[in-house]
Every structure is written in structure tokens, then in C-alpha cells.
Amino acid sequence: MGIIFILSSIPGNYFPEQPFDLFDKLVHACLFGILTYLIYRGFQYQDKSAFFKNFSIAIAFLICVIYGIIDELHQEYVPGRSPDITDALADILGGGFVSLYLLFFNYRKTKRR
């Protein structure tokens, strides 16, 4: 989360030219997909709360959605940057794809047992 915050705090005029259209959306989706996975793994490794362990995919996705929206609102105050609903949607899609993958993977794993 800290890396995403630092990257989103860089003023807009310091970013290099994008190699192709929608490159920034791809970066958003990848970063928030990775964040969703890391939060999920954190909840899976803890042993203090069965609730967080059992609902780790949903909780990780929810945290990423909220953080993505907050991150976009934060960019209102960064020079040369502005909040963009399509960036927030890319964040949600990245977290959503990883969440769906984890649901599918966990379903297949429990079905084999």
C-alpha cells in the first residue's frame, strides 16, 4: 500500500510518456491485483481469527476497492494529477480478477479433497 501511495504522490509532470494507450490502466490493475493477493495471503497465514481466514478473499477485495477509491481522491491534492473514475475501475478490476482466480483456485483445491 505504501508503494502505491508513493507512486500516486508523484506530480503528474514527472511521469514519462506512456508506451501505449491504456498503459496506466494496466499498471493500476496489476498493482491492485498484487495488493489483493498479498492481503489475502496475510489473512491466510494468521491464526487469530477464523473469520478473517475464512473470508480472506472478500476482505482483501474490499480493502483494495476502498483503498483504490481513497487513492484516487488523494490525487486531487497532487500537482498535475486528478482523480479518474477509470483508474478506480482499473483498480477494482485488477483486484476482482485476482479474487475470482483465488475463488476458483480454492474451489478446485477443496473439491479434490
From TrEMBL:
High-level lineage: Bacteria, Pseudomonadati, Candidatus Kryptoniota, Candidatus Kryptobacter
NCBIfam families with a match to the protein in the record: vanZ_1 (NF037970)
Annotated InterPro entries: VanZ-like
Acetylation is among the record's keywords: no
Membrane in keyword set: yes
Protein name: VanZ like family protein
Keyword vocabulary terms for this entry: Membrane, Transmembrane, Transmembrane helix
VanZ-like domain boundaries: 20-100
Transmembrane segments: 26-43, 50-70, 90-107
